[in-house]
Write a structure and sequence with these properties.
126 residues; mainly alpha; Helix Hairpins; 63% helix
Length: 126
């Protein structure tokens, strides 16, 4: 597999996993899309909490240690749910890549300008 196809392969694999558990993103009604976006947002939030628990964030607890291996697993879990979210929204791997490139350009422009005022209009073209 070429490196350029890795993101496409992740999308293919996630589609297969979702379909195996009965989630068919390509044929969802608006009501189903809304429900699954909320489901995946909740899952992402949970995975973020699990990632947070991989680092010693409790300043009052002396027993905590950084669990880098688990942190890596939680990041991968996040990708599962983020890809599923993209698929519910009808986005392909190419769509995500192209949107990422455009948004990255916006973010660099914001940093160059000092980003002192929030203005979502600079992302309307994405």
């Amino acid at each position: 597999m070429e490196k350029n196809d890795q993101l496409r392969e992740l999308f293919r694999m996630q589609k297969a996993l979702n379909e195996r558990i009965g989630v068919h993103t390509e044929s969802m009604s608006e009501e189903e899309k809304t429900r699954w976006i909320l489901n995946y947002c909740r899952a992402v939030g949970q995975e973020i909490a699990e990632l947070t628990d991989s680092v010693p964030w409790k300043w009052w607890a002396k027993y905590q240690k950084f669990d880098e291996q688990n942190a890596r697993v939680e990041v991968v879990d996040l990708f599962h749910f983020l890809i599923s979210l993209a698929q519910v929204l009808g986005m392909s791997a190419d769509d995500v890549f192209n949107s990422y490139v455009k948004k990255n350009e916006v973010n660099f422009k914001r940093q160059e300008s000092g980003y002192q005022v929030k203005d979502e209009s600079d992302s309307k073209h994405i």
